[in-house]
């Protein structure tokens, strides 16, 4: 209504005034280039080589700052270009929103086209940002995705003559000295470089791909780093003004992204990263995804030559094809992230090729463009694994601890306030389906799904109150490395959602996490495994939970039981369509279950002791009942003339017992002792206490689910002496 529009207009005006004030303050500052001391980007830190303009060929903070101070006028002009593009577009969006209360469907195609054109005009840095958003069908409407997708393939190439000049200058000789042929036009043109198909002058005409950097792109990107840094300072200033409790350093977040973008221009570093990634996937036996080999002698800072592979970009594949190969890409990414801690941080569809034919090793995908790689240390990886486990089974209390270790939350966090908000914010995400599904689930959560005015107003008020609580009362922060990690996850998840609209990366990654828990023997992983197998909020017993062990074995095989509408992992349920006994035993005895075997070594004696005692005691009871003669009959009027049959288990009998030496070894001569069967049973197989009985029941229940009732009955000690047993 009119009042709401006036209020919205006033809010927009106030925000604009605040932004202008912060921008004026930022413009007076001497901005520093991002510091790489704590960067997670994989880069060459041992060179200070510069180009003809004085720009470092590999990222160097001091050299970039020197360039900025020399080019102050050029930087201000570039900032003016950025503002001249961004402000009119944002003003248009704001006007439409105030006028209509939303962005009408009919306006979206023209706005999308305008956005794509503006990004193209702004150049490589902003084209990259558009490419990243082009893979999020859950966030943006289809017409916007169609426009942004053009940024992956429709970048205007520079002429081949210039490319040949760059190649010859970089390699130090005429083209024919290195190649017998080269395509007349580039086979692909991107924001930073373009690629030609060529054949090596190696006597075999080996087909290769030549990646050639765009002329003058280093200077443009250097100026854009300043523009983005200045924009981040403005954003940081606004957040500090309106949400002072927040501790996220948005400048540091952008710094990490900016450093990574600059590093992509160092093709020598890219070649080294590509070799490392290729070797790592081979070492980890990732057969579904390959990385092209590099021709090291022909790789420089501005030219890279690598093995040619025949395939098409995943962006050109059908949704069915994308859905089919998503598990392969996911396995490769999770291995990079959680196994090694060295991962491809830009896995968009243009950087993943669907091969025309599988390789000899079975690879169906090729991962290319390794210019942006990042490293995560082992401690952070372990904390992330713990967070995935707790998020997948809705253990938000433990998730708070994970977030504290990951420095997302401070150690003095108010758990009572955080946990309910975690449930509201994260539970819809775990269910999968991306942003659109997330929005639907949020509306259900806040009672807004029926569309009535009262529910919309009430739900919006509750949502606003929760948002204000987050902003004002919970001082969370996003660590800088999340900028690069988040980009990778967002991009990969967007690709997966194209093939499967219900895809959820948390649940899809859980089988991988389960396999890692069962395989690795490091103390941190052992601790996480113990938590899964031993803990339980509804159980007073601290012993191994056999059903959880069976469930985890099934999880590792890809079969996961869920709870709450298939949203969360049920740690205590064995899937009905799970693995067989033979498959389970093979897995436990394989190289993939080393961590589990280490943990179970301490449990084997306990399990054998408890089960053997239970089976022995009940077998004795069964034998006593079977061997006890029937009670003599009573005569009418005379009663019992004969004495009752003796209780066999109370009759003293000579029983041969082993003897032992002083050192505990078995003696040569046994001894004979007179005792009842009941006394002997209590010595040889003491009665189970309460915890042991609970443990035995759990093993029997798990065995019945996993193997069947007959063997479960044997473990329970039922009908031990029957022919069936």
Query: Given the C-alpha coordinates, what overall shape results?
Result: elongated
Q: Helix tally?
A: 25
What's the number of domains? 4
How would you state the average pLDDT, rounded? 81
Helix percentage: 55-70%
Report low-confidence residues grouped into runs of 5 or more: none
Largest sheet: 5 strands, antiparallel
> Could you tell me the strand content as a percent range?
5-15%
Radius of gyration using CA atoms only: 34 Å
Distance between the termini: 78 Å
Structure report:
The longest helix has 34 residues, at 594-627. The chain has 725 residues and is α+β, with helices and mostly antiparallel strands. The strands form 5 sheets. Strands 1, 2, 3, 4 and 6 form a 5-stranded antiparallel β-sheet that branches. The chain is 55% helix and 8% strand. Helix 11 (319-340) runs antiparallel to helix 17. The chain starts with a helix and ends in a 9-residue tail after the last helix. It has 4 domains: 14-103 and 218-264, no CATH class; 160-214 and 266-375, Transferase(Phosphotransferase), domain 1 (Orthogonal Bundle); 378-579, no CATH class; 599-628 and 646-716, no CATH class. The radius of gyration is 34 Å and the shape is elongated. It has 25 helices and 15 strands.
